[in-house]
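Give me structure tokens for this 737-residue protein.
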Amino acid sequence: MSACTEPGCSGTYEDGYCNVCGTPEGAEVSAATSLDPVEIPASTGSSGVSGSSGIGRVALGSRLSSGGTTVGSRSQSGPVRTRGLGLGQGLTTVPSLPAGDPLKSVQSDPAVPEGRRFCPKCGRPVGRSRQGHPGRPDGFCPNCRSPFSFTPKLSSGDLVAGQYEVAGAIAHGGLGWIYLARDLKVSRRWVVLKGLLNTEDPDAMAAAIAEQRFLAQVDHARIVKILNFATHDGAGYIVMEHVSGSSLKQILTARAAANGGRPDPLPPDQAIAFILEVLPAFSYLHENDLVFCDFKPDNLIQVQDTVKLIDLGGVLRLDEEQVSIYGTRGYQAPEISQLGASVASDVFTIGRTLLSMIIDFRGNTTTFAVDLPPQADHPVLAEHDSLYQWLLRACAPNRDDRFPSCEEMRIQLLGVLREVVAADRQRAADDSRASTLFRPPAAHDETLDWRSLPELLPSEEDTQLASVLAGLPPDAEAEHRIAVLEAVPDPTTETRLHLAGVLLEANEPVRAEEVCGRILARDSWEWRAVWLIGLAALAKGETAQAQQAFNTVYGEVPGELAPKLALALACETVDPDLAARLYLTCLRTDANYVAAAAFGLARVRSGGSAEEVAVAYDYVPPGSRVYVLARRHRAEYLIRHGADLGALESALAGLRAATLEPGVAGRLRAEALERALELTASGSGPTRTLDGVPAEEPALRVALEQTYRSLVPLTEDRAERVRLVDRARAVRAWSWT
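Here you go.
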């Protein structure tokens, strides 16, 4: 039997297959174990950007699988139910829209602008002006000869199906005109009739019939309700509940009008709030094997303090084949024509919709029809790097690189919203959010290292790992746990991840990396393996590789703080500015990260002014268990590096705010008074008081002598007591008495 050639595998080939990892004998070594850095897309690398765009990343996902080896596909989450806290998630405020008069939405002269007239069959422009003559709203496409009509088929007063009295046309959607009507049989309630773009188009008619068949069963608080299906003069109409509000498209149009006709995008926190509110509706559709297909700002309406997903004309079943897929250029996923609609294509449209709400998105149907615009070209993207990283993943060109589900998308976007809201905060966060992926950091002081970074939370659904751990004694040594885990036949990803973690704990980073390489060889999107590779790199002192690994994880879970804290630690010496920004993000966003991030911020600011370092320690709140330690370090730095008496006074004031041991506080006060004597002798600054003592040499000498003497009874070492007495005598002012 020969040894397995798979990197890091200890097995041998039996009957043509490895008895440990299962790799066929003679198979080429998978390129998936390569951890060479890859280039960041050009749109992420620009000056003036607050994020980590200057750092490389390790290959992951489609980049890792590009070597030709099958390495699995990204799995999707199972069915989920989400409960929100309302529009804004309790983190930000979105102005409420009062319910309006439905009749005000009726158009007095309904018409489709020529620039929006396209053939329903081939998509070519139709009904356009020629030689000074206006385009006809009805006719035949000159390209495919299919008929088109942009003229409303219903007028005010028409009675549809003997039940719905038409008030007038209110809008023109992707499948035709939309009308407001009264339901004469049900309390004269307002309803909406959605007609076909062209009643002679079989695809459009089929789409309407499909809605009637299965969309009437759709029942979600964030999705407009389909009430009925009616016909009139040979045309079909979907009857939907009337939603009194404004679409995001209308909100953006109104903002532009109020801004002198210039685009005025939504503040990012409000735009994110809208998307967060509607994501559970997408999760509901996907759980029921439906995809929306045509999401854009036109199809989301704000209704007072909530939102509704409207215009279900493009909704398809995931298992449908040979159907027309309705979408809008600039929002539709690039793979639609080849691969069809999917959860991933909906994810793409959601990301593009959010992007169109927060920037003046020019070129979204041409230059940037698929790609994102350069981050540095848009201040909101440059300022909020986590938001940009979220958009990069949501709108990834390869659909397998996107979020695998809208629930995971929502969880990460919620974390991004917390960061966006906290960005302008000049204090530390006083609340925290439990992560579904990481435990809080274990570091609470200046000892932040790879061991004290947040730990991955294991999956509760993996029965194999749970069974293995249940059979281990609670106090089992690392070597025993490693042996048991390595002996597990056909280990799951969770078991391998746990093994890698135990190897790190046992100071075996190289073996841990080998295990992670095997994980990536079978699932090239498993970013948790890259996280452990980053920890192993830190353990070996390979900061460049650690930076690339943590930056990769940052891009995969942009709403999590753990990779930002880890990346900041890895960047402290090579890119202190980036490290400082990441530490600030962590401490402003989550109370669990304040201590570790504040001490990290103080470290990277140590090359600047003493005041900057003091501000870093000031972020630690009085309620923190490391508050006293932070006050002490703050005082030490100000005393030793402060440029004037003001810094010394600030140091002593900080000590008064904390309860230090008398001996520690006394020594720091003595050090401050010694430094004050030096500054006074050099004539530094105006005369002032220091801890109640006039900043003049005689008074300072008396205070310093008294401080030295007060330390004597607090000191156990005899030699040190003698030294303190000698110092007190030496510093005391000369006199004749």
